[in-house]
């Protein structure tokens, strides 16, 4: 029952789900990641990324072998293995109970100080203490639409576990840009402070550029692997994905700027003599027009 260090190796792994045994969702996948390194999985929907994560939680492959610390994964007692692997998914499962209970999970021996330390790692402590009247006693049902708060609580729960391996399955994909930034800052801080092995499935490629290794999966096969810079130089699938995502983000930014310009024009037309600094409070993204300054 010793603590694992987090070395992960897939050797010629193929997998099909029992519900559809004739369709291989992973085909002859091989890679190695050393303790403390970060691995990112990218590729279109249905390419097999989430299956890699599921196999690390001890699903059994159809063919090939999976090793953690050079031990076959199915030789680990399942509860021992899962006690050392933290998972944060797109829609984390929280209990209808207090934030403290949700961070603690089943770890009843953890102290208040340990829970707060985990929350600080997850950039959740200030959110809990400064914006929630009941603080850590707040029921998670009262968080309403604060999805970034929910995600940070899920990250804190994973951190309290003290995992050797952290699995992030599109942990920020359900969030808006601001909330995603808050959660991503927490994840970046964790990677700096705690040298655990991290496996990330990311929909926004800008969040995984510093990964030790990036695997590009298409239809269950690894078509490219390397660092961000290596894959850009290869000018293959990853470079195309990066370019298309960059163009999409630029298009969204241009659309937002056009909307803001239109809004400013309407303000100026409706209030040609009003000092625009009186309007900025209602439209915080509108830049005051010098011509109308008092």
TrEMBL record:
Q: Indicate yes or no for the key word ATP-binding.
A: yes
Where does the ABC transporter domain lie?
8-244
Coiled-coil-forming residues are none
Check the record and name the SMART domains matching this protein: AAA (SM00382)
Q: A single GO CC term, please?
A: membrane
Pfam family membership, one: ABC_tran
Q: Alphabetically list the UniProt keywords.
A: ATP-binding, Glycoprotein, Membrane, Nucleotide-binding, Repeat, Transmembrane, Transmembrane helix, Transport
* GO terms assigned for molecular function: ATP binding; ATP hydrolysis activity; ATPase-coupled transmembrane transporter activity
Which family is annotated?
Belongs to the ABC transporter superfamily. ABCB family. Multidrug resistance exporter (TC 3.A.1.201) subfamily.
The name of this protein is Multidrug resistance protein
Species this protein is from: Reticulomyxa filosa
